[in-house]
Design brief:
heterodimer, A: mainly alpha, 9 helices, B: mainly alpha, flat
Chain lengths: 192, 216
Amino acid sequence: MGSYIGIFMGALVINNFTLSYFLGLCPFFGVSGRVTTALRLGLANIFVMLITAFCAWALNTYVLPYAPYLNIISYILVIASTVQFVEMVIKKLSPELFRALGIFLPLITTNCAILGLAIFMTNKGFGLGQGLVYALGAGGGVTLALVLMAGLREEAELSDIPSMMRGTAMNLIIAGLLSLAFMGFAGLFSAG
Amino acid sequence: MSAPTSSAQAYAEFVKGLWKENPVFVQVLGMCPMLAVTNSAVNAVAMGAATLFVLVGSSFLVSLLRNHIPKQVRISAYIIIIATFVTVIDYLLKAAAPDIHRELGAFIALIVVNCLILGRQEAFASRNTVKMAVADALGMSAGFAFALLCLGSVREILGSGSLFGVSLFGPNFEPWVVMILPPGGFIMLGLILLFFAWLQERAKARRGASAAQGGA
């Protein structure tokens, strides 16, 4: 049980996917303008990551031992098509959930955080249970980073900032400060 | 189109990626590998070379097959082509330079989701001749490598006091460690983009001033 908590916290704050592995930066800068949008994108991310962890586990167990050189291609194809399939199921079963998360699904399916999750999980040798916990932690970490960033950007919009600095340059520096703050979590567990 | 104009055009496609449409400084694409592997200049060069290989290879193949790939499945087809080249470079680096492969780790595999590469296939290689597509891919990846090298060398100089592993300031230099850690990457790229925004602003002001003079 302790190892599960370690995996979860490690992925959530210590090795935060966005702020210390630099994964999934495109949506991080693209969609972090409003807190509500950021939260929804984060939830969609958790959802896709859970599917990814399951797909990666299935591929690692049943397919890749026979053809290890196919790993990158098969992760991408299987993840993308599974997400597409689940998207259609949700659209049928719960249109409300689809309206809340649906538009983000294509955006994050081929995102580096998703492929990164599959690769890191494989490198660490996680099984299905550990993989799902890892995905939950990583998705939660991405959500946390997105919501914090969106909050800061909403504040920054009302402040008096030189016009040159608005946009990506300022967002990067804000992200740098956030990342600096997250480094403080590094001592939380000895084994991240 | 006659031969000299076509090679002049190919040259123009090559040059635009270096500066005017630089993928990192102007279009802000491919940020993840950009920030993740630039803690030393050597890593930056290796990443730039790997991206060059993948981008040129897949642009060549996509543009060669552009009339045979059905429109509906083109994105999947591009991704498979890109992933094939990424697998090749992954195994190549593992065999030829295992140290660099270990340093870059998962980020070699993650080239496949670099939006710069898919973006060039969709926006350029699928609509142009092989020659133009390769020229464009060479220019874009050279621009990307240039940006990686800028960020990588600044971070290595400040963060470890060396460049390409050669110590610059001697033993008395106190390294600014935060620069080779994740926050340094974000902040340094922010400052570099700020510098570019300043350059653009200044150029615009100058153009405005000269236009006003011309009008008067």
